[in-house]
Design goal:
The termini are far apart. By secondary structure, the chain is α/β, with parallel strands linked by helices. The protein is elongated. It has helices spanning about 15, 20-25, 65-75, 95-100, 120-125, 140-150, 160-165, 200-220, 220-225, 230-235; strands spanning about 1-5, 30-35, 50, 60, 80-90, 105-110, 130, 185, 190. The chain has ten helices and nine strands. It folds into two domains: about 1-150, Alpha/beta knot (3-Layer(aba) Sandwich), CATH 3.40.1280; about 175-235, tRNA(m1g37)methyltransferase, domain 2 (Trp Operon Repressor, Chain A). Adenine binds next to strand 5. Its EC number is 2.1.1.228.
Length: about 240
């Protein structure tokens, strides 16, 4: 998967995207993260990527021409690339979207700034508008990093074992069960004895019950949409 990130601030990306799992995924050529400075596609002597809004009003608007040129350049090789514009006005990002985007070969992520981008970019170039939640950030860079991370980990081989993605919260519709590691006791706080029992069926049952109960308490909306078995319903009633 190739991510082309169009931004006015490419320097924001290096530490996050070149660490840990995403760094390994790039070394293994499973993902390629290509940050592109929109300013490089300006043609005036001041390299101006934004301008005053027609009709007046506060703030600046990102100009259409450099963004069109940058996208045209990327689309020379392949015309059929999704262009995702990060904006609080977009559809709220979720795990299903991460899975769908992970099936693409290439994605263009356009990071907005200032008061927004010229509407002609949104009308003509953008194929998806995506928000990461109902709050307003200073720009689309952090949201773009979140998409790259969530999408990359759905690509086979990026995570150590594919199971770790499959067993996650949301993948199986409900929240995770609690996890423990050594030591068995810390500051008087003990690991639940069932996890030390070696009885795998018992452990599975305990985990499922904990996950179901936690979901009921914290995200009943998820439980309403989850496909629950007869055993699940009995565990919830216990
Ligand atoms: N740009 C600013 N805020 C944003 C948000 N919540 N999601 C996506 N892009 C944004």
């Amino acid at each position: 998967m190739k991510f082309d990130i169009l931004t006015l601030f490419p320097e924001m990306f290096s530490s996050v995207l070149n660490s840990s799992i995403l760094n390994k995924a790039q070394e293994k050529d499973l993902i390629d993260i290509n940050t592109i400075n929109i300013r490089d596609y300006t043609t005036d002597k001041h390299n101006q990527a934004d301008d005053y809004p027609y009709g007046g009003g506060a703030g600046m608007v990102m100009k259409a021409e450099p963004i069109f040129r940058a996208v045209d350049d990327l689309k020379l090789a392949s015309r059929d690339i999704a262009v995702i514009f990060l904006t609080p006005q977009g559809d709220t990002f979720n795990q299903d979207m991460a899975k769908e985007f992970a099936e693409e070969k290439e994605l263009i992520l356009l990071c907005g700034h200032y008061e927004g981008v010229d509407q002609r970019v949104r009308d003509e170039l953008v194929t998806h508008e995506v928000s990461i939640g109902d709050y307003v950030l200073t720009g689309g860079e952090l949201p773009a990093m979140i998409l790259v991370d969530a999408i990359s980990r759905m690509i086979p081989g990026v995570l150590g074992s594919e199971e770790s993605a499959i067993q996650d919260s949301f993948y199986g519709d409900i929240l995770d069960y609690p996890q423990y590691t050594r030591p068995q006791e810390y500051k008087g706080l003990k690991v639940p004895s069932v996890l030390l029992s070696g009885d795998h069926a018992k452990v599975d049952r305990w985990r499922r019950k904990k996950a179901l109960k936690k979901t009921l308490l914290k995200r009943p909306d998820l439980l309403a949409n989850a496909s629950l078995s007869k055993e699940d319903k009995l565990l919830l009633a216990e």
